[in-house]
């Protein structure tokens, strides 16, 4: 297990990057603690796999250092870093049995035969592969092969970190849910440092102790699932985490008052924004904290439609020309056309050019 430190790290796929826009990974400095379970979350193309490959040693960064427990491993190979990596698509030996596939990493490192057998059977039981241990891998389904690939990463007890690059892509939804729980349980039992790349917020939030949210080559927030929901540090985090995502409304601010169109609301903190000239100022509020009332209460809004998603209903409204979503309590009555909306003042966030403004008490 290792403490992973990224120091002034940045990467460009160009031979001579000239400015910030040329970097696939913008400069970052972060520490990921030993034994932590981290998820790298973000849309395709945001830099997740690039960062994972730099941590694993498959890619040398353009600048900066990667340190494991304080030791500079920036130019070390994956083997020297002593990591296990599980890729998006299965990497196994088709000609070998399932047992031999799982045993290979241990035999390659000269583990005693009894230890090999014990660990192989433990991992096989966890992944429900016990009845297939004697079968050759070539005739198995794609999801079974990926379970073997997962097992090859999990079977080693001596790794500094286990890195997962969207490992459940080819797994069917029900099995995906089971495997996420099993990976979480394995982490609790063995306390491996784990880094899990995904674009799926459900995977990230159910697996990780802390989620690293990436957007356009930057880490925009690292936090627990609760922190990402309660206090998004960037409008992208608010949009990407949650279903539906956070409402983000253009506004202007005077002290502790925010104005959306002509509608005024009180912010939990005051804000001095002389530096905001020419910048985009926005108000963020999650749909869970928007209340829909009759037209004689709250700020007048037009009800566009109601979506029933089974567990709850989502009202889509227009407020001062901007779209607002609200999650409706079960059994609530909603006007047919015009409505009023109000926001929980304690749950309002202010953003300047996408970044959270903390304000003052």
From TrEMBL:
Superkingdom of source: Bacteria
SUPFAM superfamilies linked: MOP-like, P-loop containing nucleoside triphosphate hydrolases
A molecular function GO annotation: ATP binding
Pfam assignment, any one: OB_MalK
Residues in ABC transporter domain copies: 4-241
Residues that span the membrane, as ranges: none
The protein's name: ABC transporter ATP-binding protein
Family: Belongs to the ABC transporter superfamily.
Keywords: ATP-binding, Cell membrane, Membrane, Nucleotide-binding, Transport
Keyword Nucleus tagged: no
Alphabetical list of SMART domains matching this protein: AAA
